[in-house]
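Bumping my old thread because nobody answered last time. Still need a sequence for this structure:
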């Protein structure tokens, strides 16, 4: 399969590349690195990316930025960061990929554990992750030509604990290689409308 991975140069994305590249034609996409570049906050940039790549069988998205701050300090513009980047970036990737996905292809998005286990300063992340999971359920019943969609909702990565540790006390981290298996299940399996909770 031809698999486009947006966020391929990141902590999760690079593990997904490692998991899939021996079996598939993997196309790594980053913001500044990778074989192709895209800015997911700009729909025109996403359209340009897909036009360059052409038809493919699977889109994997391991991207998304949200602002972390105590709820009392959050403002509409700080909430807009996560809405425009992690949420609408992945919604727009989904929408704009459908004309390039081959019949029976798949979309795999990334949310995160904060949709179900909140932490302090994580209100935007929890909100955006919950919205992505709800979008996945809804899109699954409407995508055309047998195109599937799932969402991976990982716990904090072992590899990211050094920087995130103070925020995730008591959380059991998961190695990126184990998280990557959920993406393999989505791309190489037959499920749709699933939220794969890892950790
Ligand atoms: N790390 C964790 O513990 C963890 C746990 C649960 C959920 N998540 C979620 O998983 C996703 C990825 O996290 P990560 O830790 O793997 O991130 P990361 O290591 O910071 O990597 C981010 C990736 O996204 C790309 N990117 C950044 N901004 C972009 C933009 N505007 N348009 C297109 N690509 C962009 C980067 O490309 P360049 O390298 O070219 O800049 C890189 O490939 C995020 O949504 C995060 O919330 C992460």
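Sorry it took so long. Here it is:
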């Amino acid at each position: 399969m031809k698999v486009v991975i947006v966020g391929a140069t990141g902590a999760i994305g690079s593990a997904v590349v490692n998991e899939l590249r021996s079996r598939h034609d993997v196309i790594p996409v980053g913001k500044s690195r990778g074989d192709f570049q895209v800015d997911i906050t700009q729909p025109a940039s996403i359209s340009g990316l897909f036009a360059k790549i052409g038809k493919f069988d699977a889109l994997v998205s391991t991207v998304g930025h949200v602002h972390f701050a105590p709820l009392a300090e959050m403002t509409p513009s700080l909430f807009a960061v996560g809405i425009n980047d992690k949420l609408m970036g992945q919604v727009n990737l989904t929408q704009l990929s459908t004309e390039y996905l081959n019949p029976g292809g798949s979309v795999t998005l990334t949310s995160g554990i904060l949709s179900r286990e909140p932490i302090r300063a994580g209100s935007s992340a929890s909100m955006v992750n919950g919205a992505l999971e709800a979008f996945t359920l809804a899109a699954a019943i409407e995508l055309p030509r047998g195109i599937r969609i799932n969402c991976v909702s990982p716990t904090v990565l072992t590899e990211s604990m050094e920087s995130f540790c103070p925020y995730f006390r008591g959380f059991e981290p998961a190695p990126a290689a184990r998280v990557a298996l959920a993406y393999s299940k989505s791309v190489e399996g037959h499920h749709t409308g699933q939220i794969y909770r890892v950790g």
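The chain has a mean pLDDT of 98. Let me know if any region looks off to you.
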